[in-house]
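Worked example

This section walks through a single chain of length 181. The input is the sequence exactly as stored; nothing has been trimmed or padded.
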Amino acid sequence: MQRQRNGGNYSGGAPWGVTDLKAAVLYLKFNDDTLPGDSQRIFSFCHSGGGAQSVILGASGDSEMYTPYLESIGAAIIDRNGIKLSDSICGAMCWCPINSLDTADKAYEWTMGQYSTDGTRGTGTWTGALSDDLASEYAKYINDLGFRSPNGKPLSLEKSEDGIYTSGSYYDYMLKIERIP
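Given that input, the structure is written out below as tokens.
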């Protein structure tokens, strides 16, 4: 989802996911006297894309960069006595956080999505076309990085018969290093 602020769009929805998390933290702190628990002991626990947002939430406590976004959604920024609330949390547990958010969907579709057998990416469906497009874009991304094997051989992906780049030296290398003895 993209939100607009001052006429601008933000790629991938950033910074709104973390802004929403910060707003939730501020809500808990604003209502600390009426809610159970200790608002000074808030932990964020997330996985994958949520893990990335959890990292940002944990590392950006009280960052002024979020103030305009929090204000634009009407988040509680001051308490009932007019004292500024803190959006800092006590800790963040981030399992497998995606650190390349701009390529994560492409990587997922290349490694797993295109092999889905549950029908969600079937031939002739828009989700199938999207999966194929993302997988192809990931191949272009990999090829542009200029990876090399430990012996210096260039690693690249080549368009396969099905058109989704599941061949080439990068593909062969990934299969080789991913095998568990």
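What to look for: The CA atoms of residues 75 and 100 lie 28 Å apart.
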